[in-house]
């Protein structure tokens, strides 16, 4: 890191530092002169710059990773396990430090940042079981004196491209498993909140990961394209918006890479008349406004059955009155949005809602904030009677705007969910086991909650949506994670004895 000008109140664009890449186990400035500002969204001010890599910078990092991989692929299972266990312990000891970095650059409140780290750490714990998870299979005597067995080998250098909304958890989903499986990694985090990646890279070094095995390259489209096209990058794990996920999937697969590209979402919660309405209202508020709605598993639409919709909306709006929006370091419930542009875009949907005939029950623009007036604030917003033709319904808003669509019953609710473009997460709230079972069977969505609003699977199951929420056939972490980051090799073996001699040009058959 290099020091530059000191930040003052008068110079809002001044920076305190430039965040370097992390290559070969140390900060590295690269050759590109391009940088981007990194804001503290609760203050509305730039707090540092981050470097934006050129194609040549990416080439340098990939060469470093490739060289380091030659050693890491030969590291024993025991050695890789030791590093992963040590990393888990360090991460647990120092999670508060990381949480503060997340809050300073993303804006989410400290308790939510700690939650993000806990869910990421789960994947590190899962990856510690690599001895079991990289085991192959063995069939003895498939033919007389012949054995067949499979090996799960690492791919080589893999690229991870992550979004702004989980600067720690999403990288942890992927690099923990990629490293445990014996790969070398280039992580390209979001340029909006890049510091967590360097912090974790330094922690991995402290845990014993050899230099060059995990490199962090900061950047924008240029660095992403360089990774997608680089002949030595064998796989790409991407998480971000649907248009970019699709672009990444198409570009990287056309360059011969294995790709998993997780995209955007619009998650519905269906509230049936027999649901516990207090439980459902708590869940809608938590899942709609946690992390200011900037979660791919946030609930953004509640489908409320007519007979309970009025009571449900009243319960939700009553709870919203108790939420405190403000600086994430002050014990508030909800922080700011990531940028001013994004905040303005999210807020613009409130006017769209009114002009499309919906009713704005709580307008987040009126919120009283416990924080700097320059922060990128928008309070929790509730919009009732949203028509499904409105862009408030069809767009992924990615902010603290909860829409209610009233439906006449289960069938209409299910139909609306299944007609949607995305299929990331969904939830049903009901006390009817039969309805819940029908829902889990009939809904066209990858992750389903039954009286659980944010059904992010635990680390030993895999995470991923359907339709425009996932391009590729491998989900994140869990068993899919180890499959994605290994390639299987089948070995057919015979230890010769004299009876096996002789010529035979026919296709091998078993005897
Ligand atoms: P984004 O698509 O703007 O950016 C994601 C990554 O792609 C970043 O690293 C960014 O630098 C890079 N990128 C941006 N534009 C690019 C371009 N034109 N070419 C190449 N690379 C580019 O997404 P975001 O705003 O950082 O994150 C929010 C989005 O991520 C939301 O749509 C959210 O639903 C989605 N998301 C999905 C999941 C999931 O599991 N499905 C999880 C988290 C976030």
Automatic annotation (TrEMBL):
InterPro entries: Ald_DH/histidinol_DH, Ald_DH_C, Ald_DH_CS_CYS, Ald_DH_N, Aldehyde_DH_dom, MeMal-semiAld_DH
Superkingdom of the organism of origin: Bacteria
Annotated organism of origin: Microbacterium lacus
Organismal lineage: Bacteria, Bacillati, Actinomycetota, Actinomycetes, Micrococcales
Presence of keyword NAD: yes
Coiled-coil residues: none
E.C. designation(s): 1.2.1.27
Protein name: methylmalonate-semialdehyde dehydrogenase (CoA acylating)
Keywords: NAD, Oxidoreductase
Segments forming domain Aldehyde dehydrogenase: 30-491
Residues spanning the signal sequence: none
